[in-house]
Amino acid sequence: HRDRLSTPRERRSNLVGKLKSNFLQTSKDARMTGMNLGHSGSALSRDHEIPASSIIKPSNKRNSSVQPLQAPDRKKFEYQYEYDLKAMDDSYALIDEDSKTNQDDVDIQEGVDAFKVFEEWLTRNGAEFPELCLKSYSNDVRGVHAKRAIDTYVCILSIPEKCLITDHMGRTETAIGRKLFSASPSLSTPNLIAVILYILTTRADPNHFFQPYYKILPRTYSNFPIFWNEEKLSWLTGSPLIGDIRERKRNMRADYDEVCRICPEFKKYSFDEFLEVRTAVGSRNFGIVIGGEKRTAMVPYADMLNHFRPRETSWTFENSRNAFTITSITPLQIGQQVMDSYGKKCNSKFFLHYGFAVESNREEDGKCQNELLYRMALASASEDPLRETKLTFLGTSRASRGFRVSMNIEDKATAEALSYLRFKVANEKELNMIMSRYSIPIHRSSGALRGSRDTIIPFVCPANEVRALNELAQYSLAQLRQYRNTREENLALLNSGHVAPFTDRRTALVVILGEQEICHFWIQVAGTVGSILSSKTGLALRVALRSLPENTDAQRDMYRYAGMITEELSSTSDN
């Protein structure tokens, strides 16, 4: 029920009051990272399915060198209220006030009604979520909140199998699905396609069982980069992500064309319709096991939990209950937003698969998850007389390679990138050291030597490491020149207060800043660690590396890298 007020201004004040009272219940808790737009799950997969009973309770002890982290991403849900009010003030000056207010009232009431029907549908069919409630922050931005304080290891959500949409249903319960999968199609994501077929072929039926669920799915996915126009893509100028976005859309088009080739009747659904449902399914699904069979499933209500790490909940399909369940693994406060972990991922993956980016994408141990694609290549034969010998070791197909480099030397791809560069810059003496270390004779061959293809070459010697770091710094400088703005300019814009949370512009800024941070980090490492390696030897070298500061996240990243070198130096001296 809504009061009927006599003037547009009063109606507007009432609307603002309702928004404020609803929104201020949002959790003020801020521990680390977290954000999305109420779009959860992925073909990429979240944290793996883990029953709460198998989770080891975390220790309260923290590494003394790891500083507490801030949580700007979780705060965004609170900040959104302030931006809603500002946007409302601006819009009333541009549009007929009476018309605008009435439409807002209609939109809000329609959303409230749809969610009420949705929850009643779930409850009527055996779902249980007595401790939870849904909240909407703005159009298509929603989340799940605790209605009361919840202890650790409490089942807070149970959705019976009958309320799940699985790939098995798309394969067996739709005529197109049966025809398609009997023809052994060539698809990039067959399980997702099966779910998509089920939704597309049933959602037009106003009386279909899943209609209450279909009606509360987001109305737009414009925050996903595959829907961005050229103007928005220009915000990503210089980023390798532009190529990833276009390749992703090409793959989706290829899947659509393959379905239409085998099932011409599928052409009644446009590619735009396919793309919309493909995005919904790709960003909301769960990978579960039902009766020993792996399934890709859409799980109503569960798919509205937003992303946050460290994880606060665990999910699984409990065959004994024949239901998908979510269990708290930390205490949850009254009014707190209840969140799920989509796993440890780079912002490029969050952006591509979920349409958001995490502003503080670091784990509790302080390690950043962001990565940047570096394309590297051996020097030409005129620049490096050892090129052919190196190709003998690598294989001709690896004369150039791409690596997703992070700021964490413990990441496999980052270690591989440095390994490649050590080999690239090695002189004859160093190359002999490498070959002898792995007992590989130096001779020419048409292909790579057996066992050498995936060999990671550790620290060789200080001089080689300095050249490898300088090479990485040069790649980083070249990458920085590709961007429209400097890191300082982008940081100033991000912190100016003029780029609102949840906007595409802010997401693009966060993604680009993450890439620029990686470039600046390796330039800094080349300068700082390279200088130490060039100027000191023996014990003095190891002491200098171990004396690097650990006051900031970037300093701790550098310290981990320096620690790796120190261990290699100690091992060499011991031998």
Overview of the structural elements:
- This protein is α+β, with helices and mostly antiparallel strands and 575 residues long.
- The protein is built from 19 helices and 13 strands.
- The strands form four sheets. The chain has a five-stranded mixed β-sheet, with helices on one face.
- The longest helix is centred in the C-terminal third of the chain and has 32 residues, at 504-535.
For the structure shown, list the relevant keywords.
575 residues, alpha+beta, 5-stranded mixed beta sheet, 3-stranded antiparallel beta sheet, 19 helices, 13 strands, 47% helix, 11% strand, disordered N terminus
| Shape call | globular
Low-confidence stretches: 1-43, 55-72, 79-101, 441-453
Average pLDDT metric: 82
Beta-strand percent range: 5-15%
Counted beta strands: 13
Give the strand order, joined by hyphens, for the main sheet: 1-8-11-3-2
Largest sheet, in brief, is:
5 strands, mixed
